[in-house]
Amino acid sequence: MSAAEPTRRDFLFVATGAVGAVGAATTLIPLIAQMNPDASTIAAGAPIEVDLAPIQEGQIIKVFWRGKPIYISHRTKKEIDEAQSVPLSDLPDPQADKDRVKPGHDQWLVVIGICTHLGCIPLAHQGNYDGWFCPCHGSQYDSSGRIRQGPAPANLPLPPYAFLSDSKIQIG
Amino acid sequence: MSGSSSDKTHRPSGLHTWPHSLKRADDGTPYVPPAYEPQNAMLRWLEDRLPIIGLAYSAGVSYPTPRNLNYWWTFGGILTFMLVVQIVTGVVLVMHYTPEASMAFDSIEHMTRDLSYGWLLRYLHSNGASMFFLAVYIHMFRGMYYGSYKSPREVLWILGVIIYLVMMATGFMGYVLPWGQMSYWAATVITNLFSAIPVVGDPIVTWLWGGYSVGNPTLQRFFSLHYLLPFVIAGVVVLHIWALHVVGQNNPAGIDPQTDKDTVPFTPHATIKDTFFIALFSILYAWFVFEIPNFLGHADNYIPANPAETPSHIVPEWYYLPFYAILRSIPNKLIGVIALFGSIGILVFLPWLDTSRVKSATYRPLYKQFFWLFVITCVLLGWLGSKPPEGGYVIMSRLLTAWYFIHFIIVLPLLGLIEKPKPLPSSISEAVLKGRKAAAAVVLMLAVGAAGLLGAPQPAAAQEHEQPPPPRNTWTFAGPFGKFDRGQLQRGFKVYHDVCQTCHSLALLSFRNLGQEGGPEFSEAEVAAIAAEYKVKDGPNDQGEMFERPGRPADHFPPPFANPQAASFALSAKAPPDMSVLAKARQYERGFPWFVIDIFLPYQELGVDYMVALLKGYAPKPADMTMPAGMQYNVAFPGHVIGMPPPLSDGRVDYTDGAPQTVDQYAKDIAAFLMWAAEPSLEARKRTGFQVLIFLLILSGLLYFSKKKVWAAVH
Lengths: 172, 715
Description:
Number of strands of chain B: 6
Strand order of the largest sheet of chain B: 1-2
Number of helices of chain B: 25
Oligomer: heterodimer
Helix content of chain B: 40-55%
CATH topology of the largest domain in chain A: Rieske Iron-sulfur Protein
Distance between the termini of chain B: 34 Å
Largest interface: A-B, 23 and 30 residues
Distance between the termini of chain A: 58 Å
CATH superfamily of the domain at 82-263 and 315-458 in chain B: Cytochrome Bc1 Complex, Chain C
Strand content of chain B: under 5%
CATH architecture of the largest domain in chain A: 3-layer Sandwich
Radius of gyration of chain A: 25 Å
CATH topology of the domain at 82-263 and 315-458 in chain B: Cytochrome Bc1 Complex, Chain C
CATH architecture of the domain at 82-263 and 315-458 in chain B: Up-down Bundle
Number of helices of chain A: 3
Shape of chain B: globular
CATH class of the domain at 82-263 and 315-458 in chain B: Mainly Alpha
Structural class of chain A: alpha+beta
Number of domains of chain A: 2
């Protein structure tokens, strides 16, 4: 096609090609969209409620929300003190313990139990920091779920949750 | 390969030797299509190591095609397009389908309901199979009309027959995967064909099934093969196209191009013409997908497979009907099976059965008539394949089956000897100038193509003929712009809630569906309140026990009975069917020519019309009829004897919106609700369909004018 002197024929071919290309691109939408979570998966990801009453001090339980393990830790006095007293400068991903728990609920730590390195599930009550130890590549988290040692770059993330009462939370 | 030894000119690729007889029009020297010239050093570097661009260029750009190819030659391109569509949509569907007997049916319903565009992908694939076969039949008849199988194209033809055979196997196995009643019984009937083989027949069938009847092992191996075979087809298609490029395309005149003036380069001429026709074909395809997606299917396949009960009238998909008629026309099992396979196998020998040296029917006055007779025979056999095997149908089937074979074995060999062909044009250019008499034949072939679809909906059984056709109702959701009436859906749900759910489950629906767009559109709070009314089984809890809790929007409607046996026992009757897809699982026979007209109207509300007729069809039994205990007389029900007592009575359900509280209104409301339950994406489908059709019309228009421009210099 001569770019210098566009003719009516060129315009027709360009228009046809352009409309065809738009059609081809639009065809990709359903092919791509079908890989997203479907309506039933989204509906099943609705918030869940967890009763905290049966969890003893020092105990960590694991619940599932949206297919992810959520650790709920009923921390001991010692664990809380450790978490609050460590200087932020010692932390690879500095974050104060008070920013990782709900106000007035210092004894409850709720974290997503997925190692921020490559997605394995860290083991509770293991490692050198009264927290979690990831068996895959040796990352260690403290009693506030913060990364202390190993290849993981960030603290264990917090799921969205809220206290419905002192002994009941809603995750999601 | 058949390159000529006298020709010393360099050939760009060993693949393309066919124009060895082609001369340049100006000086009579051999014509060599232009070869690919790499435009820069990098392309040259690649070309010296892997001449793949050169291959694509000489096969798809400079390749000379006869200039007189008519539109029937575009079906090769259409078939390639359909193969790609089927493979792409198929690969995507497999991401959501579960090939397990207890889950297959539900997994398909799940993807249709919950997946983004799941309904579109599924309907593209199921209707794509029909479009694929429609195109292949036109392609095959075109080859027969113009003698495209004759020397030197025998291998090309045989490869085509192999593709067709593998297509049939693939289509059949794909039809089994939804694991509905038709799937199950098609698998049973077709695998039982092999039991006709003497001595080893039964062990072979057991081996095919992987059990003592069609079951989960059968489904799983069919699934595996259904995924494999399309790639086998793609492989044979490569051979088919390779062979085509070796011997060159036939053309409507049936004579070889002599000079380069008889040909045009494949690109842009054939490319734009094929693309134009693919766009036109897509309009037809889109019409089926978006407006009448279940027209070519069978209502019975929306009933989950039930090994205990055969549907009263089983028929294969429309594209197998002629062969099914041949099978049934022969009263001996083994010979019937041999005739079935023979009717396809005989196509392999077509190049040698046709003894005439003239290729195109245009110049064969007698053959032309016998060709159309053969086409009509195939269409009629297809129609007979959809009819019950009784009375006059059987006699007709036998006559036509006999003619099918006589055409190949007696007519074709004899015609070559006795027919006096018309004088052939001296060149393709001369043939082109003689004008376009083919137009009439084209129209006729189109009619045949449409008629090929005639065998489609075969819902009713022979004994159902006595039912009066249900009266047609006005539905807001009918037609290309149809939408559900929200109020009607909400009232329909109330009827289900207050009446039907005592006995009928609605297992495929979740409470959240009641709030989704395009449905009854209850508010979030209303959905939560409805869900909370139901007790849903959950668990196990920490003590390992199942427990009941109030329903949540994400839960499915709990069934009224634990299982069909419990339902049957509690009601002392047949277990009531699940209602989720009932509106698509019920139909009535429309008969000719209505079901053809239904394509264009489009009328798709057979299920809901039937339901309304059934709900209003209770009447005192005729005096001469004996009614089994506990059964009711119903005008609309097949056989008139129904177990369900009249469910509705005036005033039974309280409406709050002022709609009349009559059986008539209840019946229409519940039918509309069940239509939505069966097809929750109906509104999205029609809306998308309108956009797609408009787009395709614009694209086709542009392609038409582009094609005219490209071909202007040639004509």
